Amino acid sequence: MTLITVAPTGAETSKSDVPALPVTLSELVGTAQECEALGASVIHIHVRDADAKPSLDPAILRDTVQAVRAETNLIVQLSTGGAVTDPEAARLAVVDAGPDMGSCTMGTLNFGDDVFMNRWEFIVALHQKMQDNGVVPEYEIFDLGHLTALGRLLDKYGLPAGGHVHVDFVLGVPGGAPGTVESLVAFKHALRDLPAGATFSATGVGRSSLPVMLAALSAGGHLRVGMEDTLTYAKGQPVDGNMQLVARAAGFARLAQRPPLTPDEARSMLGIKG
Ligand code: KMH
Ligand code: ZN
Predict the structure, then answer these.
(1) DSSP secondary-structure letter at 195?
(2) 83 CB under 6 A from ligand 1?
(3) Per-residue pLDDT tens for 29-51?
(4) How many domains would you assign to the chain?
């Protein structure tokens, strides 16, 4: 069975460049409903403000969590990564919006022309805040050393809320590990140093989306897809919308005899209370 996460918006693409990007609450909820119907069980959310700019505004975050909960059964995962310019305090405050899950990036990396800063002390603070608030982390792994850092974090500060360890390999970011089968296999091997039963999903940025998806399915992993990571469906063909990417992922999962998990099945796998 395959957990499919949809990451519909991200913080890097502008609405004016890509009109299909969901940026308002109603666009996000509509996308969430359609992606749930197609097989997604988790939604990884970055919110936008009234000008469609990336935001960590606490009121927008709270309203978004409530609306997606009210209109879908999806597991609501808020991004604590935000945009590269977001300060640590605002990123930590994301947990206060009460999502089911929060992302937790396991190290600093060059992010295209920018730097995505994740100091060790910040990672520890975020991990502990999620433990204290019963928010289940998804550890974002952009490079192999991030898995080593995760092993150290869990050894020193204990298991996350729910007791299950789930990581997401984000491959193909300029500055992180390449979006190749070789990266995926190396990352999967490194999971053996984490607590038994740890699960992984994977996403390939841009043109690495398909090879990473097919490799992750073959390797027993789960999938993340969406316009945060991929804006091209095929060479020369822009994505119509997030639904197209989720439908393709669900189709591959069924072909691989590992059909999509329902949100409740995913809750049980991830240690999220219903
Ligand atoms: N927007 C990136 C700088 C996350 O959501 O936690 C960070 C990111 C990771 O997207
Ligand atoms: Zn994100």
Answers:
(1) P
(2) yes
(3) 999 999 999 999 999 999 999 99
(4) 1
